[in-house]
Amino acid sequence: MLYVERWLKAGVMKDTGAESRDKGTPQGGVISPLLSNIFPHFTFDKWMEKNFPYIKFERYCDDIIIHCVSIKQAEFLKQRISQRLTECKLELNASKTQIVYCPKGQHRERHDQTSFDFLGYTFRPRWINHAQGGELAFTPCMSSVAKKSVKESVRNMQFKRKKIPIQRMAVLLNPKLRGWIEYYCKWNKWTTTGLWWWMNNRLMRWVMKSRLFSKKRAYRWLQGIYKTQPRLFVHWQLLKP
Hints:
The chain has helices at residues 2-9, 32-51, 71-87, 144-155, 166-184, 193-211, 215-228, and strands at residues 12-14, 17-19, 57-60, 63-66, 116-118, 121-128, 135-142. It has 241 residues and is of the alpha+beta class. The radius of gyration is 24 Å and the shape is flat.
């Protein structure tokens, strides 16, 4: 742990020179994600394995989901974890820490909080149809915050007025589109359909501004591209013609 302590105390280079630190990990530092995982591994993961080995949990850096069988157990564990973090000079984020009831199957009690976000997904109850008729399940889908982030990323590409071949536009967009689709379309990909139609609308607006087309002409032009090159953009494969 000596090396971890040295990294935590290491200064950060600023425009005016080195800046000393007395707490936390360097914001934006390349070592920060690693440090953020090492410390909770000992203060939380190992502590849970020792004291509550029968309770399952998932952790990504400082975001944690803990599976409890009752509200009483959840409230007790929340108190114990708060005490543990205090001992380690940490504290729970009051605005983010919540107890969520996960309805599924025959478990359909009424509770105020029945959904949560984790790693870009929203977990909430949904009715799933299958050969036996269907059932209530607690499943993930791309969160609204993640969709907003994707849209902002596309807007920041700043290619609105560039008159380049649409094949070149596909080269610029497809790596990002492929990454988003690979990550967010693993479960309930139908919930992302609106995002890909929004992407088509952005493409149409780009055609209108870069080629000075009317909306109707830009729409027909893109339709012609789709008919001859239906796989030009990765997200086109998720949408019906």
